[in-house]
Specification:
By secondary structure, the protein is an alpha/beta fold. It has one domain: 3-Layer(aba) Sandwich (Rossmann fold). About 45% of the residues lie in helices and about 10% in strands. It has ten helices and seven strands. Strands 1-2-3-7-6 form a five-stranded parallel beta sheet, with helices on both faces. A two-stranded antiparallel sheet has the order 4-5. Helix 6 links the parallel strand 2 and strand 3. Its cofactor is thiamine diphosphate. This is Transketolase. Keywords: Metal-binding, Thiamine pyrophosphate, Transferase.
Length: about 280
């Protein structure tokens, strides 16, 4: 996929996110939207995966450590062909397999059930270690929130990954600067994030704009060259990216748009899509 195709796909994923959360009348749009571009890059360019064979033992793995951003992951999986897009409107509905947090037993393409913050990275580290022990070439990617890394378990997992030189592991931090209670720096500052991962023997790649595909490509290409240590990609993003009234607003961390807000959000994204079609 070229850059323009990735941008168009990310815009579709954003529409899916807003539609699913609106239909559910609950969920987490802010962080799903900030991560829409990295979801797109991973599932449409970076990872060795096959939607027709989601349990392929040699596939790359992805763990959504910040599991509440399930609308973003589900939208990417649906766009990639793991299950019908039409099912996204059943998000969080009674009886739907698309629960509020990822469930590996019922959702095709989900490699790890997650939602308890801090735990996903531990599972990803375990998968990476298993790959090394089994002599496999697959890589493991995990996405964390910048609020999530306030959890101590994250750093236990990082210490282990660094000590075991797990160079098949890529940890991505979605540094949108906001969590449910406000600015991450005010709640319990995780900064400097890059220096912390460096201290745990990670190769750190800082991305100034994690909503830009050129910068994402540069980061993931660099990650491929790293040997002998795990990689941490720390990317600055915009919470609520793509929806005018949600951008950089902590209040949209975990709230669904009403009918009027949904209409405005979809108009924003339709305009963005039209602009991309004219490129």
């Amino acid at each position: 996929m070229n850059k323009l195709e990735l941008q168009k796909t990310a815009n579709e994923i954003r529409k899916d996110i807003v539609t699913a959360v609106h239909s559910a009348k609950s969920g987490h749009p802010g962080g799903s939207l900030s991560a829409a571009d990295v979801f797109t890059y991973l599932y449409f360019k970076e990872m060795e995966i096959d939607p027709k064979n989601p349990k392929d033992p040699d596939r790359d793995r992805f763990v959504l450590s910040k599991g509440h951003n399930a609308p973003g992951l589900y939208s990417a999986l649906a766009e990639r062909g793991y299950f019908p897009k039409e099912d996204l409107v059943t998000l969080r509905h009674l009886g739907s397999y698309l629960q509020g947090h990822p469930d590996m037993k019922h959702i095709p393409g989900v490699d790890m059930s997650s939602g308890s913050l801090g735990q996903g990275i531990s599972a990803a580290v375990g998968m990476a270690l298993a790959g090394k022990m089994d002599g496999k070439d697959y890589r493991v990617f995990t996405l964390l929130g910048d609020g999530e890394i306030q959890e101590g378990q994250v750093w236990e997992a990082a210490m282990f990954a660094g000590a075991r030189k797990l160079d098949n592991l890529v940890v991505i931090v979605d540094n949108n600067g906001l969590q449910i209670d406000g600015n991450v720096a005010d709640v319990c500052s995780p900064y400097p994030i890059d220096k912390k991962f460096e201290a745990f023997n990670f190769h750190v790649i800082s991305v100034a704009d994690g909503n830009d595909f050129d910068q994402l490509e540069s980061a993931f290409e660099e990650a491929k060259t790293v040997k002998g240590m795990p990689v941490a990609i720390v990317m600055k993003t915009v919470k609520g990216k793509g929806v005018s009234f949600m951008e950089n607003q902590a209040g949209w961390h975990g709230k669904a748009p009403n009918d009027e807000e949904y209409k405005i959000a979809m108009q924003d994204l339709e305009k963005a899509g039209e602009a991309l079609c004219q490129k």
